[in-house]
């Protein structure tokens, strides 16, 4: 009915509507409204959880920032005095063996950012120079930030200090600062030592065999169980490895030392909830680290030693200042042993060499003060008998307990040893230590010395409430060496005569056994009887733990007298160890019966001191170089770790 509407005309333009008063922002406002709507849709519990997580993250980030900033400020925040008081270089023992050329086997020593407190060097150390090239081997003090060890980082830092390890140049590994050396000029220079002789090579072979078993079956653990090819833990601190560090250095085992050093750098941590015995951990761990530092010049070991020393200090927090026997290095809680409330006299008086040296190297006085306070208090106590001390002491009252029992065996032995060695370590300045030692030697002569039948062997027995016992621990065989050392340092010459007589006795304690190895305890025959030997052994005492005391005293007697018979006796001892204790798969085992050469009954345990002491003393015994760890420059702790003698002030 109506005609269709005409089509709309074509328009060549675009219509744009401008809305003033509003702006387009990419829908951010809409997204904000959307997020807010979603947030409001959450329950109150969900919102609280999210806010709590965000708060924790923020707090963690703030603390991390503060920590990092503090570390970066520390190296530059030193005073001028602290910058001047850099540590003196320890003496570096020269290599008895030629170093390997393979750079992959060379242990590194790496500079680290400077510690927040300064260290000081030893005042005028009485130490002989290692060799004519010692000046070239000195390490410059460095302050570099710790980083990774990959090739890229090595290229970025081409000017790192190199450490000379037995003639080979070693690139420092990151994680350590290298101390500057400032030792007193030596009185004479020690020549490069000769290559090891045949007997020393036999010791090296024994060590490598023991180390191979430890490395394969017990790496990083305390002790090897060579028969079962497993391991045992005591403290969980790699005791065998730390105890062996200086032995490897002395024997020239560069590759093994480097591998052990890397374990210390990467794996040794003391932040663990574990109780350690103050005495055992001090002489083995602290002493081992300090000795490794002195011989190698590697500050990693001193850093670890200071950390460990700090963790042992809670043991001294007792009413009497006599330390507890045990301390948890993770929690700082110290306590007496479970079987008694007392500490043993030997344990609390045989930590002084190590704590005094730690203070001298770090400049932190608390270590030395705590240890020497124990010495002062024991010196003033009543209950002694002509210089002889009881075996136990109360941590509460600070008084001796179990009075009237005197021995130079377990729980008292190293008290006497450390009287002499502290006096020597301190440059023979503390006459109180010397006088206590001299009085004790006279007490031994008066109350404990007897001669056996039929061979008239001189031995040291025990006294219990006035009653003498002809019992002598193998531990007492430290005494000949200690007496000889005292005579060498100017004490009465008749000490050397007694040392020789007791050395003969300790040799017979080994020789009269069918295996040539001494039992743990012997009893001497006091009355002439037909077909009766001087040395008697009870069934419970027939075991041998690979102890070092005979080898230790043989070393001192040969070094100080030059009599070759002591080397021959040591050689026989090494052959007996190889014959009756060597395990084919690696390692050496303590045995239960030294009187049965056909079935010595392995106990499946290699004590750390076999590598740390026994083999070290045998190697030194067979050396013809009297300047190899000179007894005028070093004093050995009771775990055979050499520490430098201080020069008189």
UniProtKB/TrEMBL annotation:
Keyword Disulfide bond attributed: yes
Q: Name one GO cellular component term.
A: cytoplasmic vesicle
Q: Which GO terms describe its biological process?
A: carbohydrate metabolic process; ERAD pathway; N-glycan processing
- Write out the biased-composition intervals (Basic and acidic residues): 130-159
Under catalytic activity, the entry for this protein gives: N(4)-(alpha-D-Man-(1->2)-alpha-D-Man-(1->2)-alpha-D-Man-(1->3)-[alpha-D-Man-(1->2)-alpha-D-Man-(1->3)-[alpha-D-Man-(1->2)-alpha-D-Man-(1->6)]-alpha-D-Man-(1->6)]-beta-D-Man-(1->4)-beta-D-GlcNAc-(1->4)-beta-D-GlcNAc)-L-asparaginyl-[protein] (N-glucan mannose isomer 9A1,2,3B1,2,3) + 4 H2O = N(4)-(alpha-D-Man-(1->3)-[alpha-D-Man-(1->3)-[alpha-D-Man-(1->6)]-alpha-D-Man-(1->6)]-beta-D-Man-(1->4)-beta-D-GlcNAc-(1->4)-beta-D-GlcNAc)-L-asparaginyl-[protein] (N-glucan mannose isomer 5A1,2) + 4 beta-D-mannose; N(4)-(alpha-D-Man-(1->2)-alpha-D-Man-(1->2)-alpha-D-Man-(1->3)-[alpha-D-Man-(1->3)-[alpha-D-Man-(1->2)-alpha-D-Man-(1->6)]-alpha-D-Man-(1->6)]-beta-D-Man-(1->4)-beta-D-GlcNAc-(1->4)-beta-D-GlcNAc)-L-asparaginyl-[protein] (N-glucan mannose isomer 8A1,2,3B1,3) + 3 H2O = N(4)-(alpha-D-Man-(1->3)-[alpha-D-Man-(1->3)-[alpha-D-Man-(1->6)]-alpha-D-Man-(1->6)]-beta-D-Man-(1->4)-beta-D-GlcNAc-(1->4)-beta-D-GlcNAc)-L-asparaginyl-[protein] (N-glucan mannose isomer 5A1,2) + 3 beta-D-mannose
Q: What does UniProt list as catalytic?
A: 280, 413, 520, 549
Q: Name one GO molecular function term.
A: mannosyl-oligosaccharide 1,2-alpha-mannosidase activity
Going by the entry's taxonomy, the superkingdom of the source organism is recorded as Eukaryota
Could you tell me what this protein is called? Answer: alpha-1,2-Mannosidase
- What species is given as this protein's source? Rhinolophus ferrumequinum
Taxonomy, top ranks, is: Eukaryota, Metazoa, Chordata, Craniata, Vertebrata
């Amino acid at each position: 009915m109506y005609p269709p509407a005409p089509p709309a005309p074509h328009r060549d333009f675009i219509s744009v509507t401008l809305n003033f008063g509003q702006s387009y922002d990419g829908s951010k406002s809409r997204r904000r409204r959307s997020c807010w709507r979603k947030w409001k849709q959450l329950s109150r519990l969900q919102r609280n959880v999210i806010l709590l997580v965000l708060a924790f993250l923020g707090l963690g980030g703030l603390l991390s920032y503060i920590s990092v900033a503090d570390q970066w400020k520390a190296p530059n925040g030193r005073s001028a005095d602290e910058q001047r008081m850099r540590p003196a270089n320890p003496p570096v023992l020269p290599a008895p063996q030629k170093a390997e050329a393979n750079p992959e086997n060379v242990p590194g020593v790496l500079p680290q950012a400077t510690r927040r407190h300064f260290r000081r060097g030893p005042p005028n150390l009485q130490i002989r120079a290692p060799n004519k090239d010692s000046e070239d081997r000195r390490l410059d003090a460095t302050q570099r930030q710790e980083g990774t060890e990959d090739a890229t980082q090595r290229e970025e830092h081409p000017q790192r200090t190199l450490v000379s390890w037995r003639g080979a140049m070693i690139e420092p590994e990151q994680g350590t600062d290298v101390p500057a050396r400032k030792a007193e000029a030596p009185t004479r220079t020690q020549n490069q030592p000769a290559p090891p002789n045949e007997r020393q090579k036999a010791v090296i072979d024994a060590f490598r065999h023991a180390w191979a078993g430890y490395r394969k079956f017990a790496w990083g653990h305390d002790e090897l169980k060579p028969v079962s090819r497993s391991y045992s833990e005591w403290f969980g601190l790699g005791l065998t490895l730390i105890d062996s560090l200086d032995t490897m250095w002395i024997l020239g085992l560069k590759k093994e030392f480097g591998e052990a050093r890397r374990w210390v750098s990467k794996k040794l941590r003391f932040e663990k909830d574990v109780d350690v015995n103050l005495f055992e951990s001090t002489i083995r761990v602290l002493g081992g680290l300090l000795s490794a530092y002195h011989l190698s010049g590697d500050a990693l070991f001193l850093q670890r030693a200071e950390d460990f020393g700090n963790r042992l200090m809670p043991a001294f927090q007792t009413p009497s200042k006599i330390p507890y026997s045990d301390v948890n290095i993770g929690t700082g809680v110290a306590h007496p042993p479970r079987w008694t409330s007392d500490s043993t006299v030997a344990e609390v008086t045989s930590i002084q060499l190590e704590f005094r040296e730690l203070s001298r190297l770090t400049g932190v006085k608390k270590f030395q003060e705590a240890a020497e306070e124990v010495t002062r208090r024991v010196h003033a106590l009543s209950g002694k008998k002509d210089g002889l001390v009881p075996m136990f002491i109360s941590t509460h009252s600070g008084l001796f307990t179990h009075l009237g029992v005197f021995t130079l065996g377990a729980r008292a032995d190293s008290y006497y040893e450390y009287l002499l060695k502290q006096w020597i370590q301190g440059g023979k300045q503390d006459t109180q230590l010397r006088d206590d030692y001299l009085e004790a030697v006279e007490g031994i002569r008066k109350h404990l010395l007897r001669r056996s039948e039929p061979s008239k062997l001189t031995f040291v027995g025990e006294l219990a409430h006035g009653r003498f016992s002809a019992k002598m621990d193998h531990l007492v065989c430290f005494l000949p060496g200690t007496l000889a050392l005292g005579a060498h340092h100017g004490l009465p010459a008749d000490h050397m005569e007694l040392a020789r007589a007791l050395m003969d006795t300790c040799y017979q304690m080994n020789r009269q056994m069918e295996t040539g190895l001494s039992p743990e305890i012997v009893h001497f025959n006091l009355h002439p009887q037909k077909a009766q030997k001087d040395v008697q052994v009870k069934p419970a005492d027939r075991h041998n733990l690979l102890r070092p005391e005979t080898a230790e005293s043989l070393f001192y007697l040969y070094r100080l007298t030059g009599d070759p018979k002591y080397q021959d006796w040591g050689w026989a001892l090494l052959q007996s160890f190889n014959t009756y204790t060597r395990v084919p798969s690696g390692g050496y085992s303590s045995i239960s019966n030294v009187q049965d050469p056909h079935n010595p009954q392995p106990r499946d345990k290699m004590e750390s001191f076999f590598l740390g002491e026994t083999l070290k003393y045998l190697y030194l015994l067979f050396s013809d170089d009297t300047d190899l760890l000179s007894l005028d420059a070093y004093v050995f702790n009771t775990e055979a770790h050499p520490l430098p003698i201080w020069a008189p002030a």
